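STRUCTURE:
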């Protein structure tokens, strides 16, 4: 621009060619003419159309992805509902099994208590029989000692002679 201004001043010419705005306007017109001749608006329009098409494809892909996501969401909601039903069924079965196990444990406990009670009663009976036998043995031993003591205290040689005579007489009677 400065070059044009210096040429205009150096020539000494006066008029519209000396004004710098004139030359700016001419430069702008030349740039626009070159742009039209090179079909820049058509190129820019094509680029914009390409960008619009790309944006449209992206929006279509986003819409398809959204549809797929909604389908997956519905599928997983259905699976979740199925899983929830399965969980409820499992819980119900577990509760039934637990009740059965509790009843079985109660029955087993009652049977165990009955067996242990019977075993305890048998042990008590055996202990009672053993104690009775021991008491009888001690009573017999005590009676034997008492009899020995009484016999030793009350019998002397004359009493023994009378007993022997009587025993011999009894034997004689049985032989005849």
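SEQUENCE:
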């Amino acid at each position: 621009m400065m070059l044009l201004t210096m040429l205009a001043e150096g020539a000494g010419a006066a008029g519209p060619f000396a004004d710098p705005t004139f030359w700016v306007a001419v430069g702008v017109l030349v740039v626009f003419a070159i742009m039209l001749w090179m079909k820049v608006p058509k190129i820019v329009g094509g680029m914009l159309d390409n960008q619009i098409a790309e944006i449209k494809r992206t929006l279509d892909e986003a819409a398809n992805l959204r549809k797929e996501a909604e389908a997956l969401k519905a599928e997983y909601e259905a699976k979740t509902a199925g899983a929830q039903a399965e969980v409820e069924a499992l819980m119900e079965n577990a509760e039934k099994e637990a009740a059965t196990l509790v009843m079985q444990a109660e029955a087993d406990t009652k049977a165990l208590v009955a067996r242990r009670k019977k075993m305890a009663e048998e042990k008590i009976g055996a202990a009672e029989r053993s104690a009775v036998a021991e008491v009888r043995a001690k009573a017999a031993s005590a009676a034997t000692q008492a009899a020995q003591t009484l016999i030793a205290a009350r019998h002397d040689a004359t009493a023994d002679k009378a007993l022997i005579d009587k025993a011999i007489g009894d034997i004689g009677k049985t032989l005849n």
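REMARK: The chain has a mean pLDDT of 83.
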